[in-house]
What does this fold into?
Amino acid sequence: DAKTTQPNSMESNEEEPVHLPCNHSTISGTDYIHWYRQLPSQGPEYVIHGLTSNVNNRMASLAIAEDRKSSTLILHRATLRDAAVYYCILSLPSGSARQLTFGSGTQLTVLP
Amino acid sequence: ETGVTQTPRHLVMGMTNKKSLKCEQHLGHNAMYWYKQSAKKPLELMFVYNFKEQTENNSVPSRFSPECPNSSHLFLHLHTLQPEDSALYLCASSQERASYGEQFFGPGTRLTVL
It folds into this structure.
């Protein structure tokens, strides 16, 4: 399985943008890039996913490098409720139940 | 109830006990998953069911026995567990189709084995 590398932790000030990086140099052409986050005492929740093009949704934006070897999750205005562990995950496209291999993720701390 | 629910939320059991964890999804999904999250370790995928058929078993010890009677319910039967099996057990579901199917997670069952 292709692996991802993320910083262990990051800090951000409230109401400022946050850029969470992820390296995936061994990504294959059919791997999707997924981001999930896990708030304290909760199960993970889906944030965003993409394949080649940049993606936007109500929670965040995903910027994917042209060579797809890295990506960045962008939270446009961090709030205290965004403090969580953020996971960058690669997996094959759907068609069968998808295996998500979680790494250690990035612990995001949002400072008031 | 909406989303993915898990019961019980907390469970304490001895090594000789038999217990079961229950997961129910109210999303009409056709795939369900069990994950284990131990302290200071990443989530580990344990089992995958797709249309009630087990499609993945990631080398999980036989003291963990999954059951998927229908696409809405998933059980994890536990017997003769070890203290190192203490962890947060998470259930998830997804709708597998031609395009993307994100996984929806339940709140988890916090298991302590004495």
The first strand of chain B starts at residue 4 and ends at 7.
